[in-house]
Design a protein that fits this description.
Elements (H helix, E strand, L loop, with lengths): L2 E6 L5 H13 L3 E6 L17 E3 L5 E3 L2 E2 L10 E4 L5 H6 L2 H13 L2 E5 L3 H6 L7 E2 L13 E2 L4 E4 L2 E4 L5 H13 L1 H10 L4
Length: 194
């Protein structure tokens, strides 16, 4: 079974993240929602493996499955970054996550980002010579990319997408990456997409 982790930082775009979680889990992809910022209080007595709430850019609190420090990156097949502000900036400010992301990219392991988050890929030099897309206005951050206005761009092991309105095609591209086109089309039909 394929394993992915989607990283939730305060101010993440809720629908972009949860659409990926929902659709991937429907086909048996194991998804961990990992909190980038540990917002537990000392009063709870919680340890680093406890569930924590991460509040998205629209005030919706989502219970993460794990904190960043508890994620076994060696067991993952993909890292997924949702967009949103200031979520994207908070993701990029996390040195531990960026180090792991660099390792995934350099080793050819899969990475995916949507909305403003593809800007992180551009800043880190992952998009040179690749087709890529992002939220309108962030195209200038896609350094070295052939920027498109397509809903999703898949370039080898790098997947990018444009925003909340493209969350379903983005999630379906991840499903197709791991489960094949036929399974992704089945899933799209099952959720009455197109």
């Amino acid at each position: 079974m394929s394993k992915i982790a989607i990283f939730l930082a305060p101010g993440f775009e809720e629908i972009e993240a949860l659409t990926v979680v929902d659709l991937c889990r429907r086909v048996g992809i194991e998804v961990t929602m990992a909190a980038v910022v540990d917002n537990k209080t000392e009063e709870t007595g919680a340890d680093e493996k406890a569930d924590v709430l991460v509040t998205g850019s629209h005030g919706i609190a989502v219970k993460a499955d794990a904190v960043l420090e508890a994620v076994d990156f060696d067991s993952l097949d993909m890292i997924v970054l949702p967009g949103g502000m200031p979520g994207t900036k908070n993701l990029e400010a996390c040195e531990t996550l960026m180090t792991q992301l660099d390792g995934f990219y350099k080793s050819g392991k899969s990475i995916a980002a949507i909305c403003a988050a593809p800007s992180i890929f551009g800043h880190r030099g992952y998009l040179n010579g690749r087709n890529a897309c992002s939220y309108p206005g962030f195209e200038g951050h896609l350094t070295g990319a052939h920027v498109t206005e397509n809903q999703v761009e898949v370039s080898d092991h790098v997947i990018t997408s444009r925003g909340l309105g493209t969350a379903i095609p983005f999630a379906l591209a991840i499903v197709e990456h791991f489960c094949g086109m036929e399974r992704a089309e089945e899933l799209a039909k099952g959720v009455v997409y197109r």
